[in-house]
Amino acid sequence: xxxxxxxxxxxxxxxxxxxxxxxxxxxxxxxxxxxxxxxxxxxxxxxxxxxxxxxxxxxxxxxxxxxxxxxxxxxxxxxxxxxxxxxxxxxxxxxxxxxxxxxxxxxxxxxxxxxxxxxxxxxxxxxxxxxxxxxxxxxxxxxxxxxxxxxxxxxxxxxxxxxxxxxxxxxxxxxxxxxxxxxxxxxxxxxxxxxxxxxxxxxxxxxxxxxx
Length: 212
Hints:
Blueprint: H1 2-17, E1 22-30, E2 42-51, H2 58-73, E3 77-88, H3 98-107, E4 114-118, E5 129-132, E6 146-150, H4 156-169, H5 195-207
Parallel strand pairs: 2-3, 2-4, 4-6
Antiparallel strand pairs: 1-3, 5-6
Helix pairs in contact: 2-4, 4-5
């Protein structure tokens, strides 16, 4: 009886930990609206969750998406569909932290891969953007295959492509190659992906069910 009572208490605590998520808007964009590259071989369906009062605008988010598409298109990857969600969350969940992110993902589940547009990061050291693939989500499976971008992200289109490439390749590796997208510091000058990087991106992304 005591074990059952404890189990019920834990279940109630978990339920109470989930934040209230209010859907403000939701819209779907198809590939032809996103500038799908010619001759693509792989398709990706993406969810974007923009948090209200996080410093993002729909225009900035869509511009980042449109800029990221041709960068990923180098590898023959096209955005087939994007589900764009605008949600209101408690102040405690507007900034990224692993506990808050896990709670948000449980409270408002969406298809993966997912990009979350947040205000800031509570992680230390803090990053403007962070990718969480299969390899670095062992203790936080709720947020596997996600990207978290803060409002301070520079060159957001390049940063988005960079972080999505991390997720699709399931790798945190960076490149020292001049002009490469996967250099540690994202920049408008760094957009190129090598043939080997593209091959890994396609193969791993498809194996993990993130590409079709």
